[in-house]
């Protein structure tokens, strides 16, 4: 393990990336743990306020991301400075993407169903960075043996082929399959050969004059969502907490039985 770390992470200059990814994941997990405690009214934590204004943690996240990013670009390319900036950047990115849904909707949807997009953004980002980190670097490693060169050439060919297959899956609207398929090739291949989702660019272009294909794609997407959405939501709830239930009509301000549709 130590030899692999030295040859494939430290020597190619990927150590800052490893530190940034570690800080990113740990920051997200710690932040979610704290917000869940605040939500439950437990522990010494509380929302940060200034002059009656609720300061969301995306604000310090943006600051840390800027400091870490500009610090790396400005002067640090290796050594302690690069490591510190990588940790700052990863920490800031974790805070920002934990509230990705708030930025997307420009509304405080943190504990709503729409807030699940934050968890998806974090998982997909960690998977992509992990792919870059785990990939073989063709440059930056000194004194490669003939066997190592052959292994890296084979790995690069496989990665390139799998990237093209993942692009096909992406065009079919299978975004999670495309991302995780970049790490696990059979996943991308399955996503590429199966029917496209009905709202994908592939379906809009190639199923336009094929009503049977559109109908089959819609039915398959419905069955897939019915089968996997509950499991995916359960995993997200375990990681990040369950969203608040959507308010019913009678729970809305000013609503009464007279406001409900139906015979008067």
Can you walk through the features of this model?
The chain crosses the membrane at residues 15-34, 55-74, 80-106, 118-141, 177-196. Residues 247-264 have a biased composition (Basic and acidic residues). Residues 239-264 are annotated as: Disordered. The chain is mainly alpha-helical. It has a domain at 11-134. It is built from eleven helices and two strands, in the order ααββααααααααα. Strands 1-2 form a two-stranded antiparallel sheet. A hairpin with a 2-residue loop joins strand 1 (49-50) and strand 2 (53-54). Helix 2 runs parallel beside helix 4 (79-98), helix 7 (146-171) runs parallel beside helix 9 (185-193) and helix 8 (175-181) packs antiparallel against helix 9 (185-193).
In terms of per-residue confidence, which ranges show pLDDT below 50 for 5 or more consecutive residues?
Answer: 136-142, 256-264
Dominant shape: flat
Which structural class do you get from the secondary structure elements?
mainly alpha
How far apart the termini lie comes to 74 Å
Percent range for β-strand residues: under 5%
Query: What Rg, in angstroms, do the CA atoms define?
Result: 23 Å
Helix tally equals 11
Across the major sheet, the strand order is 1-2
Mean pLDDT: 81
Q: What about the largest sheet?
A: 2 strands, antiparallel
